# Entry
Amino acid sequence: MIREICKDEMFLSQKAESATPDDLTVAADLLETLIHHQDGCVGMAANMIGVNKRIIAFETDEGYMVMFNPEIVKKSEPYEAQESCLSLVGTRPAKRFQSIKVRWQNEKFQERQKTFTGWTAQIIQHEIDHCEGIII
# Structure
């Protein structure tokens, strides 16, 4: 189901709760909402659709990906970026890293780990910030 985009900064500034297998429908809604907004959006976190759970979805070169309970375990090569967000007005500065190693759970809640670089790494960092309640 395509959900409405949450713009409530008070809600968005809350740290997300851990996702569980009961949240698979939230992930499906998140992905469907992201695809619906694909012309102006490359990633979303569950709080952007009004659900305070640690779930992100984003576009990659190979298609879309969903992560449950993602966390960055290693980062390198910092740089300054300018980012926008469907939930927020305007463009804002953000410190990002060219390379990040992420640990997460897949839709079967099996742990995964992978290093991401470049644009994909920047998208993931933005969405994990949402999970942390960080408003850029």
Q: What stands out?
A: The chain has three helices and five strands.
